[in-house]
Design a protein that fits this description.
Elements (H helix, E strand, L loop, with lengths): L2 H17 L4 E5 L4 H16 L4 E5 L2 H9 L4
Parallel strand pairs: 1-2
Length: 72
């Protein structure tokens, strides 16, 4: 993901999502090693500033199931 997109996400999208009630994020991990490193770096920035619950999954179906389950 381009740095400008990462900046937009952390400075614009996420603050609005938090204000709207976002509490859980499901991450479908990429298969490419480079994409995974980029994803992990970006998520580390987000996790350090929030109280979000993150779930990491191999498939969209697993992620959707986790998001659909009642939170504890």
């Amino acid at each position: 993901m381009k740095q400008s997109n990462q900046d937009w996400m952390t400075q614009n999208l996420l603050p609005r999502a938090f204000a709207a009630g976002l509490r859980r994020v499901a991450v479908v991990m990429p298969t490419s090693a480079l994409a995974m490193m980029n994803s992990e770096a970006m998520l580390a920035r987000v996790r350090s500033d929030t109280r979000l619950s993150f779930g990491y999954f191999e498939t969209v179906e697993e992620a959707t199931s986790w998001l659909s389950a009642p939170s504890t």
